[in-house]
Specification:
2 domains; 14 strands; globular; aminotransferase; PLP-dependent aminotransferase family protein; PyrdxlP-dep_Trfase_small; transaminase activity; Class-I_PLP-dep_aminotransf
Amino acid sequence: MEIARSLQNVPSSYIREILSAASDPSVISLAGGLPDPDTFPIELMRSTFEGLCDKPEVFQYGTTAGYAPLLDFLSDYYQLLSNHSAVVCTGSQQGLDLVARAYINPGDTVVMEAPSYLGAMQVFGLVGANIVTVSQVASGPNLEQLEACFKINAPKMFYAVPDFHNPTGVCWTLETRQKVAELCIQYNVAFIEDAPYRELRFTGEALPMVSTFCPDHSIVFRSFSKIASPGLRIGVVTGKKSYIEPIIKIKQGADLHSSIPMQAALLGLLKHDDFDAHLESVKEIYKARYQTLFEALEAKLPESCTLNSVDGGMFIWVGIPSCDTFELAKVLLSKGVAVVPSPVFYPEANEQPSALRLNFTNSTPEELVKAVDVLANVLSEHQ
């Protein structure tokens, strides 16, 4: 049976392929955005999981929007406006898929930064979106390009990761957040704010979300994969009720609802007295690993390479001299180090700047230093 044309046009995920190769325990993987399993708050969830056996109601079908006690908690936790609501999804990735299917017709224009999150490009590609990109600078998207893009293309939505961007780690400035919100209101563009790394800030003060400045022109994705556990597969989508209701309709047809026991487990974790301390501990671990990786890169990479510091998240973006980055990644993998080459983060991979995305959250400090040694040697040989 022939697969759908929309799927025929979507290339295989390089991330999926390289993660498969990197599953070899002898490989140091800086490729995936994986949290360290040692940080999973299993002990904090133990009593909740055991208590689920006394709650048969959570093993029954539930409402599509989500487990009511969790929704009530999240409404207060995120201080949702009175005209806003939430829907719980099987990871925020499902939320992205549901929004795309609810709102994008083939040919509708979606704006993204370049580079951008690979998973979002795949989702928008599957629904036939016309993806238009604007370049990224140290403060966030190039605002002049963004306004020109809004004027010329009349896009339906602008998707972005303002806090510790995947793949570059850039965190938008306050001024950029305010200006993007202003432009979205002015040109009637929905801002799709993906915030999976927001809680992983380990330096500086948190900035308001972009959606704070354009609440009725925004849909927000939040994830618990990075601060709790990816295996829970729980994310939440929030926005004004008229935005959320179509998403609930699509989700009902997709899977009826996300796992109720997992939602109940997440609620128990978020309400646990020690959850805030757990989150602080995770941030300290990741901060130390980031510093180890960044200092090793600064000390050992050839001068022709560039890298920018980050204040949180999971990634460092390393600019390298022009080369075939896929071939470079294959060479590194043959030497026991997995990385992700830059072209996969662009809708059009040809003639993009050469760079590598490096993850620092799922390797020990010793592994990070060893990986940099391999990377530096291979880059020197290539030059």
